Amino acid sequence: MTMHVDGGRTQKKQPLEIFSLQPVLGLDTASHRMGMCRCETSAAYGGGDWCDPASQHLNSKHSTYLTHFLVFAFPSKAYLEFPNILTGLLKEVMDNFASACEKGIVTQSGDTWYPACVGFKLDMEWMVKVGSLTRSYQNVGHVNQKPCCHECDAGKQLIPFEDVTDCACWIRTRWATVPWQTMPPWASIPFDSGKPAKILRRDAFHVFRLGICRNFIGSTVHLLIYMGCFNEAGDNGQAACLARAFANLNLFCSANNMKIYSIRGFTVANMHAARNAFPWLGCKGADSITILKWIRFYAGLQLQQNGWSLTEKKVLEWMGSMDTGSGWGHLVCPIAVVLFKGLETAMHTSLIIV
Length: 354
Description:
8 helices, five-stranded mixed sheet, globular, alpha/beta, 33% helix
């Protein structure tokens, strides 16, 4: 079982706080259905033996009503006179959950089931809000060196958080200390006593759709502009090429019965493409997946054109083969190579700004 907390909006657009429980194993576990993973060393999984981990399907499909079970929700503005209502509710719920984990739940047949908590899913903002963290992204600065990660000591003096090498100094500090001084609401839940902070899980939606995915879109669109994919006779400035790119995206959406809801165009502002900055697109999570599908399609079209160098072809192949589903490998690989390895100096700088 995992715990999940996030913010939402009421019908009147008021902020809403939502806490739910999410079983780890999903409905497909009982279907006995066989499947194949999409790794290079593909393997079969599924079947009727529920004791076999390969038969256990994660709870990430079907309706939210079948995967998340609401515990409480309240409009935060309606309870301004109760500043500690969120932490109070979390403490009460998590204490009850801890009791269920330790004492078990007796069914009508007399069997006792013991639930187990494998993590608390929430985004970085909520981690700080409900955990009173002393190490978080809010500590990132350019003057004072402060720890800025709840998992490790990255950001401290001599432990740069910008280090992305395989032997980065922060790797050996992961889970060594807890990122809080006062006990958080989940302290009573049985978990790994050696690494208690590991209960804070990264929410895949925020990490991918609202995180690395939007960074990839911003950099990729600008890289395509640098490669001349949207050039026409006349004005080929940044704004004009961004407008043509979005027009091409709209054409793709019309042909595939899709729609972009959160933005009306690619601009320097919503791409956060100021000079000497790494672009990222400000859009909704659903739109980021639609745009990724368009990039994959458009890169495939460009590969059919003549005149590309071997390096440019390789970059286009990466764009065209990236996975828009649950697998991130095809997407993260080109990001890491293009951003940090520098296929060509010109292409590397184009990811900063055109």
